[in-house]
Amino acid sequence: MALLDLQGVTKDYPLGSTTVNALRGLDLSIERGEIVAIMGPSGSGKSTLMHILGALDAPTDGEARFQGQDLRDLSEDALVTLRGRKVGFVFQTFNLIQTLTAQQNVELPMTFLGVRRGERAERARALLAKVGLAERVGHRPNELSGGERQRVAIARALANDPEILLADEPTGNLDSETGATILRLLKQLCEDEEKTMILITHDPDAAAIADRIVRLRDGRVVEEVRHVH
Amino acid sequence: MFIEFLRLAGQSVLHRKLRSILAVLGVLIGIMAVVMLISFGLSLKGLMTGEVSKVFGVDTFMIMDENVFSRSHSNTVKEYALDLETLRGVEGVKTVAAVRQRTAFIQGGTDDSGKAQQGFFPVMGLSPELLTDFTAFTGDLVFEEGGRQIAETDVDVAVVRRQLADRLGVGVGDAILIAGEKSNEITATVIGILAASEEKEQDQEFGMSMSASSADTIYIPYATMDRLWPEGNDFLVTVARTLPGYEVDEVADRAEAALKAEGSRVAAITSGDITSLIDQWMTYINIFLAGLAGISLLVGGVGVMNTMFTSVLERTKDIGVMKAVGAKNRHILAVFLIESGLIGLFGGVIGTMFGLGAAALICLMINALTSMPGGAAFPFIASPTLIAATLVGAFALGAVSGLWPAWRAARMPVVDALRYE
Fold first, then answer.
1. Planar angle of CA B72, B250, B373, nearest 5 degrees
2. Which of A138, A172, B46, B319 has most Cβ atoms within 10 angstroms of its Cβ?
3. Predicted ipTM?
């Protein structure tokens, strides 16, 4: 069984007085342990697809199954729990909570799942050490560089040991050298922790670490390329 | 999980220092007004009930005109008739003292041209018991040198104030003529002159504020009053003390019934009656004060709400992120409610301190600037119930003001929140 399985997915949302058809019958299947890059021009539906793959949003029509479970059958709270446990997000703009330290940011997903304090702190420190920030646990985001912030975000994404990492333009706000380091780190982590990763990107260098590249246009998959590393 | 939310909310409050301080200030002013006004109300009540118990004691009751507390009645003291012997005969009554008042023609000395000084002036007859057993009613009286208070065995004597002594042209040892009913007439010797004191004038009144005493009043012994006006229908105030072991309220009820049975239109009043009257008035005053303070609290609450809406808007992206990493709607609601509750609580703590401080200062100032009968002072009362209720109320005010913004935050769709720039 595929980890993620999308069949004929459409997504419409209102924008002012018109309706945007962001996804128009999209089929996509992602297997466990794969690294998949999703590419496409602006407006091709990349972000909308990411929202559905990350259980942030349900499709208007079609089937979206997460480990065989149709997302449309889940309540809002069940969706929250699903993404809390199974999905780790890495965003282009890092999206750390500015008022919290690196460690507190990493602890946050565990807090919402009710993990005990001691366990949380220990795991957060271990994850920060894994992304090379053992010395920076007490720093707040504004005391960290862009690359460091993205490392904190990656550690946070791994907090609840998710099945899948969803990275939306993770190198979009970083210089190329730092970006390359982050990509290497992501790939390394996926291999070490046996994670599935979906990488949404414009950047061909980013896409290069993927096992498979999926190209979108106008809300449909137009091309799939399998990489042989 | 509450601790984590408290930390999230607390850090958010601290992060936006200036705005938080302003919102806290809004609450602070409201709470300060509430605490100050209520504390002052408590002080006022404390003063009044303290004075009542000082004058009355626990074993004393008063007989007054039955309409004394009715609202249609004017606030002048009405005279009434009663038989003191009936009152003395009531079971449980130990001592009785009375004050009678009449207006009489008075003639004093002569002026330089030999013209007699005369006129109509109020005359008060004081029972000897009043001067011996109920000194709290007369207060501290200051006599000019050579003068003295009326004694139990005195007959045909009078005490006047300095102002009246001047008008009548008399001094201690001089005689004045008092004309009573029909042809009853006595010549009384002035035995004491009460020192004139502008400031202390209030202190010098017999029977305190209950009496219609003025600077013109002539005080004579009760027995002399009886001789001048045998008809005792001019009682101003009558006080009775109960025997030990008797309930003052029961004795007062018996006395009232006995006197009414004889046709006296009187009411027996105990300190409990006056205290409950004060309580009733204080309730009105407190409702009025609470209304005033409530307005400033409302303004404070609106301030918190405004701050929270801004905070929610500013943290839209954070809300999206928190929801993306597993925060349920109720988690978001809790974080924002705690945040607004904290603003309320901070305002409450500081406002309570300031409010108590202001109330203490007002009491100090009133005590320093005014002097009250018998050296009474405004007591400063810091009620623990008030403090506890205020702090709980301040947190609730903050939380309630934050309810709408927090609800909006919690309901925000995660995708929209994440997209928000």
1. 60
2. B319
3. 0.92
List, for residues B318-346, the tens digit of each pLDDT value. Answer: 999 999 999 999 999 999 999 999 999 99
Q: Determine the distance in angstroms separating the CA of B402 from the nearest CA of chain A, rounded to an integer.
A: 20
- Please tell me the CATH superfamily of domain A35-47+75-226, with its number: P-loop containing nucleotide triphosphate hydrolases (3.40.50.300)
Give A49's contacts in chain B (Cβ within 8 Å): none
Q: Are residues B33 and B81 in the same domain?
A: no
Cβ pair B328:A98 closer than 8 A: no
Question: How far is B22 from chain A, CA to nearest CA, in Å?
Answer: 20
Q: What is the pLDDT of residues A196-210, one digit of tens each?
A: 999 999 888 888 899
Q: Is A92 on the interface with B (CB under 8 A)?
A: no
Chain B contact present for A180, CB below 8 A? no
Domain of residue B330: give its range.
Answer: 2-53+276-419
If asked whether residues B343 and B388 sit together in one domain, one would say yes
Q: Which residues of A touch B317 (CB under 8 A)?
A: 95
The number of distinct structural domains making up chain B is: 2
